[in-house]
Amino acid sequence: MGLLSQINHLLNFLLPAVGLAGIFMLAGLWHRRKKVHILLHCLQFGINLGVGSAVLAFGLLGFGVDGKMVTYAALVLAMATSQWAMDELTGRG
Hints:
This protein is mainly α. It has helices at 3-31, 38-63, 69-89.
């Protein structure tokens, strides 16, 4: 497998985490009426992306294949918990 194919596989593997992190960031922008610095939203995006990537990696290691619905359910639960915890820590919950 060539380098471009490996990069393509990695990006497709991480796409659910990237998409969900983006949805959580946009929902946070819409939900909070107060102006908050954009760096805070970028930080939340990065943290959610890290949590989501870790869940996907553990799902791949645990099941031996990616794309299991249990992994995707754990992805949503872990990232929602991460977003909730960040909102509680910043006092915006």
